[in-house]
Design brief:
By secondary structure, this protein is an all-alpha fold. The chain is 84% helix and 0% strand. Helix 2 runs parallel beside helix 4.
Length: 124
């Protein structure tokens, strides 16, 4: 019975602890997560439509992670956003078309906007 009660209490506290962990995140975390997804998408789309080197986008993500110096959990979350976005677009597009070009352009704009916001509002 005591074991069951302990298990029930720990299950009830899990959302509370998760929320507390979220509260300890920097105020720019959502922008950083979105930027990770944008860079992941561009790692696939930009070479497809503009002939850029995918390695350049990989290096951009590596620089972002290095600059952030996040703990393992946050690093994994940022990498997961990057990878999920890359895989989504790589499974959707096999060649550049009008829609891929438009998405690439929009992601370039959004990425630049996110970088500007992060630099101006959340510089350390």
């Amino acid at each position: 019975m005591a074991l069951l009660l302990t298990l029930a209490c720990s299950l009830c506290l899990t959302p509370v602890l998760a929320k507390a962990a979220e509260n300890n995140l920097p105020p720019y975390e959502q922008s950083l997560r979105r930027l990770s997804a944008v860079v992941g998408a561009l790692m696939f789309l930009d070479p497809l439509c503009n002939g850029s080197d995918p390695k350049d986008w990989y290096l951009q993500m590596a620089a972002l992670l290095e600059a952030e110096n996040a703990d393992d959990t946050r690093t994994r979350q940022l990498k997961d956003r990057f990878n999920k976005s890359y895989l989504t677009y790589s499974s959707t597009y096999k060649s550049c078309n009008a829609q891929a070009k438009m998405i690439t352009r929009l992601y370039h704009e959004e990425g630049q906007s996110l970088l500007t916001t992060l630099k101006l509002k959340h510089a350390r």
